[in-house]
# Entry
Amino acid sequence: MEPIGFSDIQSLARQESSRLHHYFIGVEHLFIALTKLRGGLTAAVLEEHGLSPRFVRHSIREIIEPYQDPRYWVGFPETPRTVRVLEMAQSYAGHNTPSERDLLMAILDEGDSVVIRVLAEMDVDLVGLRETAASLPNVGQVSVPEVPILGQVELTPDQRHVLQQMFRSYGQVQTVRELTGGYSGARILLVRPVRDDGRHDAAVVVKLDDRDSVLYERRRYDLHVKDRLPPKTARLVDFPTAPDGSAIGGLKYTFVGRLEDSEPVNLREYASHRSVGELHRLIREVFEFFGPNWWLQREQYRFGVWREYEHVLPPALVIDVLADVRPDPEGHVLEPFKSWSRLPEVMPGEIVTLSGLTVQKLHPEQGRMQLAAGSQSRSEAVNRCSKVEVRGLDLSTRRHFRGEVVEALVGRVILTRDDLLMRSVQDLEPQFSPFMKLIPSRHPALEDLPNPLLHVSELLERQIQGFLSTIHGDLHLGNILVGPNGDAWLIDFGWTREGHTLFDWAMLETSLLVEIGSRRMEPGWDGVWNLIALIEAINRGDDRVLHEDHPAVPVLSVVWTVRQIVQECLAQPDRWDEYFIALALIALRVLDWQSETIDGRRLAFLIAALAMKEAQKPFRTDGGDWPDLTQTDLRTGL
# Structure
């Protein structure tokens, strides 16, 4: 391999600066360039300390952020700190051209750049890193040992590669089983590492997902979870494993407890053989255990619904890119945060220019990517609004990266959010037209329900007086793990953020009803309507429904416990529209859970319709509190 020249490093730094629209050379650009050198010393030093070069790059980019202002100068001027670092590197090199090692040592010795602050935030041993940088020979890429992976879980070559790198210091890895229940395409595995001498370490939970999602989740964990949750909970240990050249990465969760108590099940599996009383206890424990550091650390928050909930819906638009068409400044220009993403202002067939949106997800093999607003607002959900899916891209010739701001992209609109939602409902084989204003009731105790598809824009434009707190962001049954001692642990912090406090509880109620309730009702639309009638009684605060002779009543009693928690989290005790707006939009999100049964998705649609009805009458007039059911005789198993 030819030695890496200083000009190569400078060239990579300029490329990085250009992609971020900075157009100057900072120490951060130089360091990112060093981490990208194939077979380079910097990557080897980081990996020697258990750091993925890709994760370090990702963390630095999250701090420095892309610029959106136009360029006002020519060339790539160096910042004063960069000049100082380059002078230090030259002094180390003497009369020679500075090498990669010289530049790396200078960055570490300068000691006050963004790079150093990010590494310190990760609790990296900077002294040890410097010693390794000084002593490590110039070697090629660190090889991953072929650690044997045992067990019945089928893995792709990429997934095996990530596991081998994650547990490279062990003699073998045993995949105990797969934990079901995710809806993002990630795989959650229970893994037991075995040392070279045959001793077993405690089982850990490993999440395998696309590498950008893994890196993003670790950053969310560091910002919102680390050092904030009680000691008796799941912890992300080590840094993400995100090998260069692999499309996926991995995270490792560990648990505090005895070795024999460290093999959890998710709440869905736990519910299948436990009493209602135990489920009540567990849901309350989750709230009381995590609440003081999350949901109860709250402040008054008045917001437009779209700021917190638009991102749970399908993309506002799907467009086919027109590669040879130049932007028309007089045409329809779509910028972040404008009303086009929540009101029917753009129709299929129109040619539009996307301007200033940020790459959120990439699907290179399918030639498509997802763009969103991408600002660094305190309420991170708003960063994911203004969502657009772009198709027909040739990503083999133009490489994009997550977080990149796309200055201008021209395309033809082929689908709107309304079209996507209509398609999802048509897939449910409805007994009504999805274009109807009212959904005809098929239960004698229920009135016709408003069609939620016709009220999405109206709901997004509503204003809510609520609370802002740290939330999990994806609190479904698959993300709550239960150990043999009945302790609750949370995993999957990829959506954890500062957000509307009731978001999590609307998500949990929807998950309970769709994932458990739909399996305890008779199949078909008639079964859905019968269960919806019982949920409507819950909405009225009528606890007599919990003594009905229906297989789903145990689930409804757990939903009752969720409603108790919601009541504690309402900004205004009599304003239940705050909750039902959240419930309606999150239930619509479930229409895209293709791994869920058709009856589960049918139920989600009518949950949205029923919640929409409740959201239209903001004050709860039939009154009463939600009495505590944990001491009642509800021992029927779920």
Summary: Residues 158 and 245 are 10 Å apart (CA to CA). DSSP finds 20 helices and 22 strands in the chain.
